[in-house]
């Protein structure tokens, strides 16, 4: 089970207590009536949905019930950090620096040779046997 | 608010609370449905806390997962501006809060909840059958409280002693929660 740190409860809690609440930092226009249809569509429907690092809203619904923001890798499901709602969007480069293991998971497109490796090892083992 | 706090005339029929009198025992765990109590859901900003604490007679805890108790009254931290206050001796926390002028929201939830006590050396093991939180004494000491889940239902958990928990669940979930705990107690004993 994933453990997610709730910034309000100040500790890690099991994922069953949480619920995802969509992309974070989607800002509603101050003058929504003056917004063009295209801009409103972008604000209302269009989401980044990246493969890799994403900024999301989460809710500790079965705990303190508060909304907060999280930085998560959609590939590895790893949570890099969580922060209170209303706090500024953290700098991605800084997060990557503080978590060295984060970099490969974020740009892990060069995994094509992975399936070959076990086969190669098997072939080597056979050679050794013979 | 003041109107809600005034008590109605003495009832003519005895109240029959949900699950009243049910209990269950297994090796190392004992389950019992606790007597009805006065409960209140309290939401208030930081600035109102001193006045509310004074009116209630209990200092509202500000740290996550902590509770404060005085006599039969317990105040449990549920969120950054949210508390549950329980009075087991018939005192009315709603009436106490009605006198407070500072901004707050106090809602009576006495009949919404049913309390189940889980006691015995295997109490934490029994609860962990459906509660994913770490209930070891280091992570969840005596007096710790938290809203969490038990199986499929939401509960509020309060550790009243090293081997005793109070489980507050919604009345409509109480049958499920009690049946779940009975099975968990049987499994914990095995």
UniProtKB/TrEMBL annotation, chain A:
<dbReference type="Pfam" id="PF04267">
    <property type="entry name" value="SoxD"/>
</dbReference>
<feature type="compositionally biased region" description="Basic residues">
    <location>
        <begin position="117"/>
        <end position="130"/>
    </location>
</feature>
<dbReference type="InterPro" id="IPR006279">
    <property type="entry name" value="SoxD"/>
</dbReference>
<dbReference type="GO" id="GO:0008115">
    <property type="term" value="F:sarcosine oxidase activity"/>
</dbReference>
<feature type="region of interest" description="Disordered">
    <location>
        <begin position="102"/>
        <end position="130"/>
    </location>
</feature>
<dbReference type="InterPro" id="IPR038561">
    <property type="entry name" value="SoxD_sf"/>
</dbReference>
<dbReference type="GO" id="GO:0046653">
    <property type="term" value="P:tetrahydrofolate metabolic process"/>
</dbReference>
<protein>
    <submittedName>
        <fullName>Heterotetrameric sarcosine oxidase delta subunit</fullName>
    </submittedName>
</protein>
From TrEMBL, chain B:
<dbReference type="InterPro" id="IPR027266">
    <property type="entry name" value="TrmE/GcvT-like"/>
</dbReference>
<dbReference type="GO" id="GO:1901053">
    <property type="term" value="P:sarcosine catabolic process"/>
</dbReference>
<dbReference type="InterPro" id="IPR006280">
    <property type="entry name" value="SoxG_het"/>
</dbReference>
<dbReference type="Pfam" id="PF04268">
    <property type="entry name" value="SoxG"/>
</dbReference>
<dbReference type="InterPro" id="IPR007375">
    <property type="entry name" value="SoxG"/>
</dbReference>
<dbReference type="GO" id="GO:0008115">
    <property type="term" value="F:sarcosine oxidase activity"/>
</dbReference>
<protein>
    <submittedName>
        <fullName>Heterotetrameric sarcosine oxidase gamma subunit</fullName>
    </submittedName>
</protein>
């Amino acid at each position: 089970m994933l453990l997610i740190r709730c910034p309000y409860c100040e500790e890690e809690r099991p994922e069953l207590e949480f619920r995802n609440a969509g992309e974070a930092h989607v800002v509603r226009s101050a003058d929504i009536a003056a917004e063009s249809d295209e801009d409103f569509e972008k604000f209302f429907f269009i989401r980044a949905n990246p493969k890799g690092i994403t900024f999301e809203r989460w809710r500790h619904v079965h705990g303190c019930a508060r909304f907060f923001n999280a930085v998560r890798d959609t590939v590895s499901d790893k949570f890099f950090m969580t922060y209170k709602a209303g706090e500024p969007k953290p700098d991605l480069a800084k997060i990557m620096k503080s978590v060295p293991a984060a970099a490969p998971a974020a740009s892990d497109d060069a995994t094509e040779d992975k399936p070959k490796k076990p086969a190669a090892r098997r072939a080597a083992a056979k050679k050794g046997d013979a | 608010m003041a109107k809600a706090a005034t008590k109605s005339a003495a009832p003519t029929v005895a109240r029959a609370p949900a699950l009243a009198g049910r209990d269950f025992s297994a090796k190392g765990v004992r389950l019992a449905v606790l007597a009805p109590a006065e409960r209140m859901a309290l939401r208030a900003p930081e600035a109102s806390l001193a006045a509310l604490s004074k009116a209630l007679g209990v200092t509202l805890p500000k740290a996550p997962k902590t509770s404060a108790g005085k006599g039969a009254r317990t105040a449990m931290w549920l969120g950054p501006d949210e508390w549950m206050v329980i009075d087991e001796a018939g005192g009315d926390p709603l009436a106490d809060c009605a006198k407070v002028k500072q901004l707050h929201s106090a809602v009576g939830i006495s009949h919404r909840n049913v309390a189940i006590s889980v006691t015995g050396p295997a109490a934490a093991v029994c609860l962990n059958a459906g509660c994913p939180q770490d209930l070891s004494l280091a992570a969840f000491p005596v007096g710790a409280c938290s809203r969490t889940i038990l199986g499929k239902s939401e509960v509020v958990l309060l550790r009243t002693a090293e081997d005793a928990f109070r489980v507050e669940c919604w009345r409509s979930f109480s049958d499920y929660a009690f049946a779940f705990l009975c099975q968990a107690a049987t499994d914990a004993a095995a």
